[in-house]
Write a structure and sequence with these properties.
binds alpha-D-glucopyranose; 17 helices; binds calcium ion; single chain; 19 strands; Immunoglobulin-like; Oligo-1,6-glucosidase, domain 2; alpha/beta
Length: 529
């Protein structure tokens, strides 16, 4: 790695849903040892860092996002020794490990909550958000993100309600309490001391609640679709300005480590200005803030370009964008953006890997994995079950990685029952695509390699170009132009010359272009001068 390379800015990051990546012991559940066994694949692909969804002990009411011990590993996923080995083995391949921090809530089985519930004077009572009933019902009108019911649950023994913005098994922590802040400082240090390179922070915008517990406002014309689904504007139970203080505190702590650790936030806000505020006015908050307006824009030049251009214009010069098309909540890009069409998926991958900003690939994106249709009895996600059949739950994007065409897909043994069904591994798997020079996998790798060898693609400026409808083209730095035809019509672009460094179909790599070039339907080109 060149000395001036900043791994999380210049490199490519990759998200692993650990239960679904690779199962090392044949119990049908992916685990840390499985990830260690697959590091060669990730090294070959050119990945610089992994974000691994929660691995801490959890009753799995929300699959790891209900943590019952922040300083241990869930036995189904491995041990602390496995973490040490993973950090060391990944380090050998220049791959850093980011863990997932869940600070908004714990599991209701966490010892703090076991203590807190039942008595107003319990030692850990104030670590959670409690309130008296109002007119015989919940303290205010706040609704849970999961299910649209009251976000308050009555603790009969003490006569007070506790807050849960998500499931009732996920009581919200009281971030006004200094002890909560100190406990989490300690949790960060615990993992940083083990060599974890940073954290992805779950619902980073939600930690602090209005101190006066004021009622949320009803939806209005401006309310986004997500809040509309819940049925109110979440302005007092999340999105409070004081969340920034907590993030600043963690950033200061992370910066003090050598090398500095990094913070990536799940800033699930659909207003770009609010999202960008999480980088901090002095770039002293998140290193990277996930861009959900980008995730939810449709794959056409107009919508995506608008988000990218606006993000570019709002970001402070010191702050750095991050782009992703899939994750364990929103779905897979191959399905949501591309409807399973491979030419579209190729364009989406070219876009993610050539914009100015850090790309996060989700496991399986590199082979263009799509979400299988699941039946209700196959679902494991509480949200999917609650809202069945609409909107689609989150299990479809959490199915096991497809390594080989065989039964078990190389994810687990052929005899084992995988914890979630496996998609069509015969049609889409790593092993077959490794043998096929023009596969999506080889395209992904070639894009990553090109990026790694091109300072323009890593840190060069982004400048959108004038193009005909349906096309999105931009210059990166001095010598690179990317042209994506996100339409079903062939188009001709003028004033472009150079050599095709990569084409989505791989059939034009190395071609010389003099002044004008035609770009086929759903074709993308990276041109170098
Ligand atoms: C985040 C996670 C999601 C989880 C929720 C509650 O949105 O990404 O998977 O269910 O927080 O922790
Ligand atoms: Ca296992």
């Amino acid at each position: 790695m060149p000395a001036d390379k900043v791994w999380w800015r210049d490199g490519v990051l990759y998200q692993i849903y650990p239960r679904s990546f690779s199962d090392s012991n044949g119990d049908g559940i992916g685990d840390l040892r499985g990830i260690i066994e697959r590091l060669d694949h990730l090294g070959w692909l050119g990945i610089d860092g992994l974000w691994i969804n929660p691995v801490m002990p959890s009753p799995n009411m929300d699959w790891g996002y209900d943590v019952s011990d922040y300083k241990a590993v869930d036995p189904e996923l491995g041990t602390l020794e496995d973490v040490d080995e993973l950090v060391a083995e990944a380090g050998q391949r220049d791959i850093r490990i980011l863990f997932d921090l869940v600070p908004n809530h714990t599991s209701d089985q966490h010892p703090w909550f076991r203590d807190a519930i039942g008595s107003r004077t319990a030692r850990y009572r104030d670590l959670y958000v409690w309130a008296d009933p109002k007119e015989g019902g919940p303290p205010n009108n706040w609704l849970s993100v999961f299910g649209g019911e009251s976000a308050w649950e009555l603790d009969e023994a003490s006569g007070q309600y506790y807050l849960h913005n998500f499931l009732r098994h996920q009581p919200d922590l009281n971030w006004w309490n200094d002890q909560v802040r100190e406990e989490f400082d300690d949790i960060l240090r615990f993992w940083f001391d083990r060599g974890v390179a940073g954290f992805r922070i779950d619902v980073a915008h939600a930690m602090i609640k209005d101190r006066e517990l004021r009622d949320n406002l009803p939806v209005d014309d401006e309310t986004d679709e997500r809040a509309r689904r819940i049925g109110q504007q979440p302005i007092y139970n999340m999105n409070r300005p004081e969340a920034h203080e907590v993030i600043q505190r963690w950033r200061a702590l992370s910066d003090r480590f050598d090398p500095p650790r990094i913070l990536v936030g799940e800033t699930f806000v659909l207003d770009l200005g609010k999202m960008i505020a999480f980088y901090g006015e002095r770039n002293d908050e998140l290193n990277l803030a996930f861009n959900f307006p980008f995730v939810f824009a449709s794959l056409d030049g107009g919508a995506l370009r608008k988000v990218v251009d606006e993000t570019e214009s709002l970001l402070l010069p010191e702050s750095w964008p991050v782009w992703t098309g899939s994750n364990h909540d929103v779905g897979r890009l191959g399905t949501r953006w591309c409807e399973g069409a491979e030419d579209r998926t190729r364009c989406a991958l070219m876009m993610l890997l050539t914009l100015r900003g850090t790309p996060f690939l989700y496991y399986g994106d590199e082979i263009g994995m799509v979400e299988p249709e699941l039946t209700k009895d196959q679902l494991r996600d509480p949200v999917g079950l609650r809202f069945w059949p609409e909107p689609r739950g989150r299990d479809g994007c959490r199915t096991p990685m497809q390594w080989t065409p065989e039964k078990g897909a190389g994810f687990t043994t052929p005899e084992a029952t995988p914890w979630l069904p496996i998609g069509d591994a015969g049609a889409c798997n790593v092993a077959d695509q490794r043998h096929e020079a023009r596969s999506v996998l080889h395209l992904t790798r070639a894009l990553i390699m090109l990026r790694a060898s091109s300072p323009d693609l890593q840190t060069g400026s982004y400048e959108p170009l004038e193009t005909p409808q349906g096309v999105w083209a931009w210059r990166r730095g001095e010598r690179v132009t990317v042209a994506l035809n996100l339409s079903s019509q062939e188009v001709t672009l003028e004033d472009l010359s150079g050599e095709v460094a990569l084409s989505t179909n791989r059939d034009r790599d190395g071609d010389r272009i003099g002044d004008r070039v035609s770009v086929g339907p759903w074709e993308g080109l990276v041109i170098q001068t």
